[in-house]
Design a protein that fits this description.
heterodimer; A: alpha/beta; Rossmann fold; six-stranded mixed sheet; four-stranded antiparallel sheet; globular; B: mainly alpha; MetI-like fold; about 80% helix
């Protein structure tokens, strides 16, 4: 299933902690991403998955810890460095966050024009390629409000891909979707993983995690409790928190399509 | 009441002269006032605490003092510290300053209604804060504020008549002169009123056209 596995570590997240008010959201979270790897973040809601992903992109500033992308430590205080870093680390949100005033193709093209300084025509060409890649070239002229949830999320993925990111962070990309639309988004993510994209994804889609992830990371109360391959953590009889959690999850949604 | 000689010989030539000047006041004041209000509104929402404070204080003063008084200050008080304006310049400046303050309030409301996700998505793509506000937030806020800002522009058309207070001879000023010369206040100001009504109607059409032009599919009624 996984085509391009190598041992090259491209993103290191070290000892990230975050406190909001007097509540400790994240405690000493560390992750190493190898090139082409898909890690899945799992855990009950409120475990800090979303906060961790946003800390990795510095959309929420971590209180402690460091981030090293391709060997270079990120100096988080420098706005310029942050902007450059973020162009290399794409982010997909649970509620899509497409720019409401732009149609699909401009949603993809605007960062190419304004952030990377590419001329409009080239940017549109590139945007069209990415929309084709997620199967939405025929919807290029439609506005976010005219797209279904699944289509919106695929445009959001195209938007992130257009920046040629090194890593993509996906924050529960299918949680806001109707069940019948989940599949189309997961297919796109599966294809990306096959093509060698490095990704960290928070999700509740256990079947998907089992089938596609290289590693499952289980979080609870802001702490990474355990991590390992799906086979290790989900093995019949494995005494892991992950397995307990999945059993509860599956019994709750028995019958729902995954 | 309106003998042709009086109407075509005296009222209309004077009022048409004033109308041209009124246009020269209203159009730039509307455009620059809106642009200024957009900038001021963004500053009052996204600026540093220091900038917000300054923006809020500016708005409080401008909204708290009658426009007629502001006009007087610009025309009569500023020369005392060495800043001189022609009547036209003084009127235009005070209209821009005033409408920017009111526009900023409509814009501020619109900005507050935009979800943080829009901001986050732009940041995640590498936009700086300024780029995010300029390319992502402000275009959406301006659309949402447009009906309110249109209201302000309709007001502007009418409060431009205060320019005569600093001897800027626009529509109202010319009307006043003709009326005082002839003592036919009713006729003159009926026509002046009609002129303003026509201007406001045209402004309303333009604003409607703008709203349609920049409508985003999927928002509002079908």
């Amino acid at each position: 299933m996984i085509s391009s596995e190598s041992n090259e570590t491209i993103l290191q997240v070290r000892h990230i902690s975050k406190t909001l008010g007097d509540k400790k959201i994240l405690t000493d979270c560390s992750l190493d991403m190898k090139k082409g790897e898909l890690k899945v973040l799992i855990g009950p809601s409120g475990a800090g998955k979303s906060t961790l992903l946003q800390c990795i992109n510095c959309l929420i500033m971590p209180d402690e810890g460091e981030i090293i992308l391709q060997g270079a430590k990120l100096y988080m205080q420098s706005k310029k460095e942050l902007c450059a870093y973020r162009t290399k680390v794409g982010m997909i949100f649970q509620d899509f966050n497409l720019f409401d005033h732009l149609n699909a193709i401009d949603n993809v093209a605007i960062a190419l024009c304004k952030v990377k300084g590419i001329d409009k025509k080239t940017a549109h060409g590139r945007a069209m390629q990415e929309l084709e890649r997620v199967g939405l070239d025929s919807k290029a002229r439609l506005y976010p409000a005219q797209l279904s949830g699944g289509q919106k999320q695929r445009v959001a993925i195209a938007r992130a891909l257009a920046m040629d990111p090194t890593v993509i962070l996906l924050d529960e990309p299918t949680s806001a979707l109707d069940p019948e639309l989940v599949g189309e988004v997961l297919n796109v993510i599966r294809e990306l993983s096959r093509a060698g994209m490095t990704m960290i994804m928070a999700t509740h889609q256990m079947e998907f995690a089992r089938a596609v992830a290289n590693e499952i990371v289980f979080m609870e109360k802001g702490v990474i409790i355990e991590h390992g391959t799906p086979a290790e953590l989900l093995a019949e009889g494995a005494k892991t928190r992950t397995r307990d959690f999945c059993t509860t999850l599956l019994s709750m949604e028995s019958g729902a399509d995954v | 009441m309106f003998e042709p000689d009086f109407l075509y010989g005296e009222i209309l030539p004077a009022l048409n002269r004033g109308l041209v000047l009124s246009f020269q006041l209203i159009v730039p004041a509307a455009v620059l006032g809106f642009a200024g209000g957009l900038a001021l509104g963004c500053l009052r929402v996204f600026g540093t605490p220091w900038m917000r404070g300054l923006g809020n204080a500016y708005t409080a003063v401008i909204r708290g003092v009658p426009l007629a008084v502001q006009l007087m200050m610009i025309y009569f008080a500023l020369p005392k510290i060495g800043i001189y304006f022609e009547p036209y310049g003084a009127a235009l400046l005070s209209f821009i300053l005033c409408s920017a303050a009111y526009h900023s309030e409509y814009i501020r409301g619109a900005l507050l209604s935009i979800k943080q996700g829009q901001f986050k998505a732009a940041q995640a793509l590498g936009f700086t804060t300024l780029q995010t506000v300029f390319w992502i937030i402000a275009p959406q806020a301006a659309r949402r504020a447009l009906p309110g800002c249109g209201n302000e522009i309709v007001y502007l058309v009418k409060y431009s008549s205060l320019a005569y207070l600093v001897t800027c001879m626009e529509l109202m000023g010319e009307g006043k002169v003709v009326a005082s010369d002839t003592f036919r206040f009713t006729e003159v100001f009926l026509v002046v009123g009609a002129y303003y009504l026509v201007m406001v109607t045209i402004a309303t059409w333009i604003l409607h056209w703008l709203e349609k032009r920049y409508r985003i599919p999927g928002f509002g009624a079908q």
